[in-house]
Structure formats: C-alpha cells, structure tokens
Design a protein that fits this description.
By secondary structure, the chain is of the alpha+beta class. It folds into two domains: 22-147; 152-309, Histidine kinase-like ATPase, C-terminal domain (Heat Shock Protein 90, 2-Layer Sandwich), CATH 3.30.565.10. The protein is built from six helices and eight strands. The chain has helices at 13-18, 22-103, 113-143, 156-173, 193-209, 270-280, and strands at 152-154, 177-182, 187-191, 216-223, 229-235, 284-290, 294-301, 306-309. Helix 4 (156-173) packs parallel to helix 5 (193-209). The longest helix is centred in the N-terminal third of the chain and has 82 residues, at 22-103. The chain is elongated. Residues 256-263 have low confidence and may be disordered.
C-alpha cells in the first residue's frame, strides 16, 4: 500500500512564538478554573449562610414573641395575686379584730373557759394567715411594679426599738432573750422607715421561729468603714446548712426544716421579701450560719443613704 502524503499543516509564526509560553498559559487556565470552582463554592456557602441567618431571625422573633407573652402572663398573674390577696386580707383583719374584741368580754363573760381558748386559737391562726397574705400582697405589688416607697430621714435606734417592741411578746413566749445594741451618735438613714422595719421584723421573726428556748437574739447597728450603716441580726438558733445558704433568700424556699425545732414552717416568702426590700434601698445582704450554733444576717446600707448623726 502506497502511503498517502497530503499537504502538511503550516506552522504560523504566531504559533512558533507562543510555543514557549504555552505551559504558562495552561497553568493560568488551570488557576482560573480552580478559582471559578472556589467562587461557585463560596457563592453556595453564602446562600446557605443567608438561609441559616433567615432561619435564626425567624427563631429569634418567635422567642421574643414568646418572651413578651410570658411577661404579659406574669404581669397578669401578679396583678391577680395582688387583687386576691387584698380581698383575703380584709376579712382576715375582721376575724382578728372580732376575736380580740370577744376575748376582752366587753358585754359580759363568755361562760365556759374553753371559749376563751378557742378564741385564742382563732386569733393566732387568723393572724398567721394574715401575715402570709400580707407577704403575698407585698411580693405581688413588687412584681407588678406597684410598690410605693415613702422615704425620709429616720433614726435607726428608733426603728430597731420599734421592732424590738413588736417582737418582744413572741420572743418571751418562746423563752428567748431579745437584745438591742446601737452605736452612739448613729447617723440618720434616708429610707422608707416602714419598709426597713419590715426587713428587721421579718429577720427577727425567722430568728424567733428557729431559736430554741433559752436562746438569745441580738439586734445591732453601727457605722461601717466606708460611711454606710450596718444592721446585724444574730441568733443562737439551729443554724442553716452550708449547702442551703445560697438559696436562703430565694422566693418560696424553705431551708430550715430542721428536726431541732418541731412544727416550724413558713411560707418561704419572708426572707425573699427581705432581699427585695433591701434592693429597693440599694442595701446588700450577708449571711453566716453554723448548724446548732446560730445565724447572723447583715443588712448594709450604702453611704449615699447616710446623713448626720441623730
């Protein structure tokens, strides 16, 4: 077979000139293809990221709406609680008042002594219920933002002496010694005197409740090193377990259910109310306790609330 010889392709001068740089052209083309692939990948990732951001925004909006609904529900609950506790307080006040009136026998003797005992029980249980309702009402008002502060310059020794008089009967009934110690020339305190009395009385009530017969409760007040005022309520009661100290001021918490003092249960609101009222005065709370030895609670008012010596 005779081989066929056709015309050979002509090599142009341009081709000959480009021949040395063709490897570089191939490299550039490869780089461009990789860059295009990376660009397409990045665009896909950007699209995916935008979809995720859109989803997160939708979730965030749902969470915000849920939070708003929960806040509204909580506000309505607090307002309802304030109304219902106010309605309960009125008849309880009447029960306590009428029990006291009948015990005094203004219109003649009751007759059987048992009636007097029953009236005493009615009066004490009604007073206990009234205390619980008052605590609930205060907490509900604070949560609803309806708490009123009537602030003025007040004498700390006078406040503590008022608290001592209020708690003397309960302390004496439990065989507990109640002592007040105040530093001389103690400065005046800018506060709501009624709310500060409530702080001290709640702390004293807790101490009386959990201090055995023969114990001692000390109420003290003094200036601190930075110009503030420190109140201290110290008892020789049953103490609080160390692992419960962090939760002692939390609402609805009962941490002193201890076998050393039987039958002493509270609502779990008294100490949490102390913390709330202290916060309203920019005061800080501290607590130290040793089981079977006692508890000391300090209320530290800032220098901005301290005035001249009284």
């Amino acid at each position: 077979m005779v081989p066929r010889y056709g015309p050979q392709p002509k090599v142009s001068l341009k081709g000959l000139l480009l021949l040395p740089v063709m490897p570089l052209v191939w490299v550039v083309r490869g780089v461009k293809r990789r860059r295009d692939r990376q660009k397409n990948k990045l665009q896909r990732e950007i699209l995916d990221l935008r979809r995720e951001i859109k989803g997160l925004r939708r979730i965030n909006m749902e969470l915000m709406n849920g939070k708003e609904r929960a806040e509204i529900s909580d506000q309505r609950k607090s307002e309802f609680l304030a109304r219902i506790t106010h309605e309960l307080r009125t008849p309880l006040n009447a029960v306590v008042g009428f029990a006291d009136l009948v015990r005094q026998e203004p219109y003649g003797e009751l007759g059987n002594p048992k009636y007097g005992e029953y009236l005493t029980d009615i009066r004490s249980t009604s007073a206990h219920m009234l205390d619980l309702v008052n605590d609930l009402l205060d907490v509900a008002k604070i949560e609803a933002g309806h708490i009123e502060m009537r602030e003025s310059w007040a004498s700390v020794p006078n406040i503590l002496d008022d608290c001592r008089r209020l708690m003397t009967a309960d302390a004496s009934a439990g065989g507990i010694e109640l002592v007040v110690k105040t530093a001389p020339d103690l400065p005046a305190l800018h506060c709501d005197p009624g709310r500060v009395r409530q702080i001290v009385v709640n702390l004293l009530s807790n101490s009386v409740k959990f201090t055995p017969k023969g114990g001692r409760i000390t109420i003290a007040a003094r200036p601190d090193r930075v110009g503030g005022i420190v109140m201290r309520i110290e008892d020789t009661g049953i103490g609080i377990p160390r692992d419960a100290l962090e939760d002692v001021f939390e609402p609805y918490t009962q941490v002193r259910a201890n076998h050393l003092v039987k039958g002493q249960q509270g609502s779990g609101l008294g100490l949490s109310l102390v913390r709330i009222l202290a916060d309203l005065h920019q005061a800080t709370l501290g607590i130290e306790s040793v089981e079977r030895q006692g508890t000391t609670v300090t209320v530290r008012f800032p220098p901005t609330r301290v005035g001249r010596a009284t």
